[in-house]
Amino acid sequence: MSLTTFGAIMGFAAESSGKAEEIYKVLAQKARDATLKEVLQGLSQEEGKNHALMIKARRENVTEMILEPVTDLHQEDYEIDPKTADAADDAGLLKAAVTLEERGKRFFKDASSKVSLPEVGRIFRKMAQKKEANLSKLQGLGLSQTAGGRG
Amino acid sequence: MAILEEPMKGIKKVKNYINGEWVDSSTKEYGDVWCPATGEKIGEVPFSTTADIDKAVQAAKEAYWEWRCTPPLTRARYLFKLKNLFEDAFEDIARTLVTEEGKTLDESRGEVRRMIENVEHATGVTTMMTGYNLEDIAQGIDCTAERQPIGVFGVIAPFNFPAMVPWWFLPYAVVCGNTYIVKPSEQVPMTQTRIFEAIDECGFPEGVINMVHGARDAVNGLLYHPDIKGISFVGQSATARYVYKACGETGKRAQSLGGAKNFVFVMPDAELDRSMPSLITSFYGCAGERCLSGSVLVPVGDVYKELKEKFVAAARALKVGNGLQEGIQMGPVVSKKHKEKVLGYIEKGIKEGAKLILDGRNIKVDGYPNGFFVGPTIFDEVDPNMSIAKEEIFGPVVSIVRAGNLEEGLTLLENSEYGNATCLYTTNGKTAREFKYRAVTSMMGINLGIAAPMSFFPFGGAKGSFFGDIKGHGREVFQFFTDTKVVIQRWT
C-alpha cells in the first residue's frame, strides 16, 4: 500500500515503532546474555519513546503543506515481519534486532525526503542517525550471529 | 490501512450550551446531520429560536462585568488550560470533524491545529491589548488611549471549517474581556459540540462562552439583538453582505467574510514538477470547499500544454474516499444538496461550451455507494465570462483559462467580483514582485497554492469577499474586540 499522505506516513511510523517496542520486549525476555538483554530492553524503551514522538509530531506539525500528496513511498517495503520475534538463541535475537534497526533506518531515511515539512524531515533524519548508532552498538556486542549466547 | 473507528455511534441530538450548562432548545424543529462519506444520518440539530438566543445573550450579558474586571493575565490562564484540554482531545475532535464534514484526517488535524494556534496567539493579550500614552499633549495635560472590552460578541460560522473558524474570533474576544456566543453551521454542529465539552471542562465562569445551534432564526436573533455589540461572520458573499448590512442597521461592529473565486497563475518559468503537489492541494484540498481553494487555473504563455498534461495526470491519481481512512487524499463534499449544486455547475460548464477533460461526476468509491462524492473535475478551454469561471462552485472543479501574459492574468483578477486569494508560480523575482504589487486580492501565495494566514496574521479578502475593515485573527483583531478610550487629564 502506498503511503500517500503525511498522516499515512506518520501513522505508519507510529505503528511500526509500537510493533518494534513489543517485539523488543519479547526478544529481551528470551535473551540469555545479560548485556544483550539490557540492550534489547533499552531498544524497547526507545521504540516506546519513538512511538510517542511520532504521535506528537503528527499532531503538532500539521500545516497546509502536509496536505500535499506524497508519491513513491510504499508501506510493504518497510513492514516489520512478525516472525522477527520468533528468534530463539542469542545470535538469532541479535540478528532480529539488526534487522529491525536496519528497517527503521531505511524507512526514516527514505521518508525524510518525502515529507515537505522541514521540522518533520529533521526528526526523521535524526531517527535514522539513531538507528545507525544502534546498529553500531549491536554489531559491537561481539556476539557471533551463528553461535549461541554466552549465558 | 484500516478505517479508524468513528468517534460517534448512533444518532446524536445536540444541545445548546448556555450559562455553563447543556440545555435543550425551546424549538420543536430539528434538522438532520449527515455523514458525507456514508450518506447516513448521524445526528439532529435544533433550529433554535430567538428566545434561545435571548437566553444566551442574557447569560453573556450577566457574566460580562465580572469577566471584564478579571485581569487579562488571569483570563489568559483559562486559555492556557483550554489549549491543553484541546491537545488531549485533538484526535477525537479531528475524527468528529471528518465524520460530519467529510474532509480527510490530515485536513482535519490541520484544522484543529490552526484552531489551537489561535488560542495560543490570544494568550499574548497582555502585550496585544495595551494602549499608548503621551505626556504634555498641552502643558500639564496628559493623554492615554486605553483598550477596553465592549460586551457581548458572537460568531456565525460556516460548514467548511467547523472547528477552526469560530476560533479565529472567540479566543481574542474572550481574552480581551468580552463574553461570547457561537452559532455553528447547522450542517456540522457536532465538532463544535465536542469542542465545547472541553470548554465545559475548562471551568470558565458561567455565561462567558455560550453556544446556540440553529439556522435562519438563530442568525437573525443574533444580528438584531440589541445587546450584542459585534458579529463575526464567515460564509457566502450574499449572506456576508446581508450580515454586514444588518449590523450597520443595528449599530454593531462587523467583520463579514464572504466567498471566493481564486485564480492560480503558472508562469512559463515555474518549476512544474516541484509545484504540482501544492497545485493539486490548492484545487482539491478539502474537496475544493474552502475560500482559499484554487478554482481557476491560469497557464500563462506557453506553459499551457505541459501544465495541463501534468495537472490532469496528478488530479486523476488522487485517492478519493472516506476521510477517516489514512492515505485518502480527497473526501466527499458536505451534503447531498451541495453535491447536486456542484454537479449543476459541471452541467452548466458543458452547456456553456467548456471542454470537460476530467469528469468526476460518476465516481464510484468502494464501500460507500451513498456517499456525497464528486471526483476531481477539470474543464479546459474555459472563457472568463462563463459561469464556471466567475461563480463560486465550492467543489473539486477546476476551470483552465489561458492568459497570454501576466498583464492578461491581472486583468482576469481585476474583473472578478471576488478578491479573496490568488497564487502565482514562478522562478522570476521581478514577476513575483509585479504580481504582489498589483494583484487585487488580500491574500496571496507565491509558489504555494493555499495562501492561508496563520493566527498571527490577518485573514480576510477584498472586494466581494469581505465586508468590514478589521479581518479575522492577526494583530488587528484585538482592535475589533476593544474600544479605544482616550483619557485626557490635568492635575496641575
Overall shape of chain B: globular
| Overall pLDDT score of chain B | 96
Q: Count the helices of chain A. How many?
A: 4
User: Structural class of the helices, strands and pairings of chain A?
Assistant: mainly alpha
Rg of chain B (C-alpha, Å): 23 Å
Low-confidence stretches of chain A: 145-151
Question: What level of helicity do the residues of chain B show?
Answer: 25-40%
The greatest interface here is:
A-B, 24 and 27 residues
What is the straight-line distance between the termini of chain A?
42 Å
* Strand segment count of chain B: 23
> How would a textbook summarize the main sheet of chain B?
7 strands, mixed
Give unreliable regions of chain B as ranges: none
**Distance between termini of chain B?**
77 Å
Structural class of chain B: alpha/beta
- Please tell me how large the radius of gyration of chain A is: 16 Å
Which series of helices and strands of chain A comes N to C? HHHH
Helical content of chain A stands at 55-70%
Task: Outline the structure in words.
The complex is a heterodimer of chains A (151) and B (492). By secondary structure, chain A is an all-alpha fold. In chain A, 64% of the residues lie in helices and 0% in strands. Chain A is elongated. The longest helix of chain B has 20 residues, at 50-69. By secondary structure, chain B is an alpha/beta fold. In chain B, a hairpin with a 4-residue loop joins strand 4 (30-35) and strand 5.
List the helices and strands and how they pair.
The complex is a heterodimer of chains A (151) and B (492).
Chain A (H helix, E strand, L loop, with lengths): L5 H25 L3 H27 L29 H23 L5 H22 L12
Helix pairs in contact in A: 1-2, 1-3, 2-4, 3-4
Chain B lengths: L11 E2 L2 E3 L2 E3 L6 E6 L4 E7 L3 H20 L2 H17 L1 H12 L3 H18 L2 H4 L3 E7 L2 E8 L3 E5 L13 H6 L3 E5 L5 H14 L6 E3 L4 H8 L4 E7 L2 H14 L2 E5 L4 E5 L5 H13 L9 E6 L4 H13 L19 H16 L3 E4 L18 E4 L6 H4 L6 E4 L5 H10 L2 E2 L1 E5 L3 H10 L4 E4 L15 E2 L2 E2 L9 H4 L2 E8 L2
Parallel strand pairs in B: 1-5, 8-9, 8-11, 9-10, 11-12, 13-14, 13-19, 14-17, 16-17, 19-20
Antiparallel strand pairs in B: 2-3, 4-5, 6-7, 7-23, 12-22, 15-16, 18-21
